[in-house]
Amino acid sequence: MPRPPGHGPGFEVRRQKIIDVAASLFARQGYAATSINDLGRAVGLAKGALYYYIGSKENLLVEIQSRVMGPLLSRARQIADLDTTPLLRLRLLSESLLTIIFRRLDHIWVYEHDYRSLSGAELKTLLGQRSDFEQLIAGLLTEAVEQNTFRTMEPRLGTLQFLNLHNHTYQWVNPDGRWDAAFLAREYCTTLFRGFGAPDHALPKIEEQAEAFKRDHPELSLDPEEEWKPTSA
């Protein structure tokens, strides 16, 4: 939701906090079972003041999705534009996606369970963001097929396999456990790349390349919520 005229950065900080609290409430109680009054009590605002920040309860579902998809889409586009192999870009995108899943579990939960509560323009916005992300993955898979790195496949089916392996992580992952985003990205991509037909000898090299990329380009963070600062070099 665009910032209303005349509001400074404090307005946006407060609005984002409300979105995060709403995600937590919806994840615990369910979207339908959570009233505006429940949310108002949680953030210390009366109903009128709350609507001033969020517009409507329905709009919160779009905002919760955008809290994840906004930075993720931006980072995915930057990764897709890198001048390197499609396998390495897929591996980096995998880790970026898992990084934000680890951090925004409540937001992911709400999207997966409650997006069907939307209709009209709100649903169109939400599905459009997801479609844009899927197109980036499909494009990288197509590149890998064209380079004979992957076997011939239907890009849409390959994209769904990539997403199915990553997106359900929110159902079981423990962000404080022994598996972090980088570890899961390595495991997931090993499974996917072998299944998609990458030669076995290429798989360790991809991990070496991923580690070298992160070491040599600390300014290009895979974390979607951190700044991407490409150097002139």
What radius of gyration results from the CA coordinates? 19 Å
List unreliable stretches of 5+ residues.
1-6
Shape field: elongated
Number of beta strands = 0
> Which whole number gives the mean pLDDT?
90
| N-to-C SSE string, H for helix and E for strand | HHHHHHHHHH
- Count of DSSP helices? 10
Helix/strand class: mainly alpha
Give the helix level as a range of percent.
Answer: 55-70%
The proportion of residues in beta strands is under 5%
End-to-end span in angstroms? 36 Å
Largest sheet: none
Write up this protein:
- This protein is an all-alpha fold.
- Helix content is 69%, strand content 0%.
- The chain is built from 10 helices and no strands.
- It has helices at residues 9-29, 36-43, 47-54, 57-80, 86-103, 105-114, 120-146, 155-167, 181-196, 202-216.
- The longest helix is centred in the middle third of the chain and has 27 residues, at 120-146.
- The radius of gyration is 19 Å and the shape is elongated.
- It starts with 8 loop residues before the first helix and ends in a 17-residue tail after the last helix.
- Residues 1-6 have low confidence and may be disordered.
